[in-house]
Q: What sequence folds into this?
């Protein structure tokens, strides 16, 4: 059972993020794009305040993979770059921290576009 615990934690936390997003879609007039943006901003704010890392330590991928985890990565990158480079780190830290994830998303998106051809569903 102890082997399954990290998976259960990740599933529970990731599921709560998804459920919260679905509730926002269902019961507010927020568009999905605004909700996704709010998730990233919440991750940045919670990461900047040092409140998000304990959740990542406890839930693992359930907290680090969603968009709030991306925001947290941006905040950690900025904090690290400011410590190393000073004020210029505010502008470069987020790019450095997120570069690997953004590059991977672009490469896998390109591969998906090359491998799968969408068809017009109205035909």
A:
């Amino acid at each position: 059972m102890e082997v399954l615990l990290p998976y259960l934690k990740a599933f529970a936390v990731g599921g709560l993020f998804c459920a919260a997003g679905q509730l926002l879609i269902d019961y507010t007039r927020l568009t999905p794009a605004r909700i996704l943006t709010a998730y990233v901003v919440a991750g940045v704010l919670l990461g900047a305040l040092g409140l998000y890392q304990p959740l990542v330590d406890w839930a693992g991928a359930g907290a680090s993979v969603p968009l709030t985890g991306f925001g947290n990565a941006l905040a950690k990158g900025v904090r690290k770059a400011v410590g190393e480079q000073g004020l210029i780190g505010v502008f470069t830290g987020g790019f450095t921290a997120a570069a690997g994830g953004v590059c991977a998303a672009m490469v896998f998106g390109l591969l998906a576009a090359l491998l799968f051809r969408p068809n017009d569903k109205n035909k």
Q: What stands out?
A: The longest helix spans residues 89-115. The chain has one domain: 5-115.
